[in-house]
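User: Second chain of the day. Same drill as before.
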Amino acid sequence: MFEIQLRQLPAECRPLLNKFYRAHRSHMRVPAGARCWIAGNTEIVAGLCLTGIDDGHWLTGLLVAPGQRNQGLAKQLIEQALRNSEGPVWLFCDPKLKAFYQQLGFSEPASVLPEALAARLQRYNRNKALIALWHDDKRYACPLPF
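Assistant: Same format as last time:
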């Protein structure tokens, strides 16, 4: 059995993540310009994307293969992506997943949701109830020089 590795996916390999999404009948796709992280060894078993927006990132495309769920892969993948990103990270999720994301340091955004994401969330909520959460852990930011 191979050990699962977490790593950033090189830009030229993004089609592999799209193939993973399609194989699991997901409508998710890698957004243009996104940085992607994957878990796997000889094949992808989980992935996510971070797309730059304002002074932060929008987390999308988090998917773990059904046979690999409930093993902590989503948590590990999110933590890896956060360690390698500066600024706040926003995401939209089903309200049932709120507690999962809160355990990872995400909270409700109040007034910090960028206008582009606020408009997108409003459109998405016409068909499906989603909530917006954000993460702005200063541990990953550079300290001020005083």
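The helical segments are 14-23, 73-83, 98-103, 115-124.

User: Great, on to the next one.
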